[in-house]
Amino acid sequence: MEQTRVLIIGSGPAGYTAGIYASRAALKPVIYEGMQPGGQLTQTTEIENFPGYPEGIQGTDMMEDFRKQALRFGAEIRSEIITKVDFSKRPFVCEDERGNQIAAETVIICTGAAAKYLGLDDEKKFMGMGVSACATCDGFFYRKKTVAVVGGGDTACEEALYLASLAKKVYLIVRKDYLRASDVMKRRVENTENIEILFKCNTIGLFGEDGVEGAHLVRNLGEEGEEKFDIAIDGFFLAIGHKPNTDLFKGQLELDEEGYIKVKGATTHTSVEGVMAAGDCADPRYRQAICAAGTGCRAALDAEKFLMEHAEL
Ligand code: NDP
Question: What pTM value is reported for the model?
């Protein structure tokens, strides 16, 4: 069976950064890029908040640069997907979708997370043309415009507040008649003049010519007093939660109740010694590319140290 010292599952800023550090440490990492090489950044347009790019950079270009940097130092990058893992004993045996097995002394998991969407066809139609799941990434393009945020949790409130500092007006579309967010966030949203909360409203469609120009909403869906109406908006932001891509690790690693991989303290060590996790699959809170890159670095350093301390491997 093929052997490797460091197996990295997943690409994106965490996976490639782990690859850069592990290859510079002469560990010859093997990276399985997975279904979406480059990760979530390849779905956004311009990245303006990653330090080092004063003029901004397209997400796909940035990920291509990360990839090239990992290749430059000798990382081996494969386009396959890991579909099975066995973390019950070392070396860890992982299998790709074609049934090829690889035995790894350490594994770094960087499988990321995916924003949840409502499931409307119009979300796909206007993706990158007014539909976004990241206000921090895309909010800047909506200065002095009108936007809507969907969701009633802390993320939705945070995104609405952030957008309210840039946009002319923000609609917060909430399906219940209350906000689930913490009191402090609720109060901030309620006290922000240019945020209008639309309680008991669901989005049923979006419209526009070359981008989002408005949303079709329904109030009191399925109840007495149900009414349909439209709002004019330039941007439509989803903040209804994220789902970490960790189904593969259920039963193998400790996950929190939402499926995020649990790591020990400020390290990237998971519940299984020799298996590290970095990036959004282990980060329910920050979910930023720069943070993912940082934890990718930490994971490679944790793997290197682990291999030194377990020289018998
Ligand atoms: P939450 O799960 O807390 O909230 C999701 C929101 O989206 C809910 O209001 C939910 O509505 C709504 N929603 C879900 N599905 C749909 C749908 N199909 N249509 C319409 N609305 C929908 O997720 P968050 O991302 O807000 O937060 C995740 C965790 O992170 C929480 O524990 C939160 O407290 C924490 N967090 C903390 C922050 C902070 O402390 N500053 C900042 C951001 C997050 P409903 O209420 O009806 O279910």
Answer: 0.77
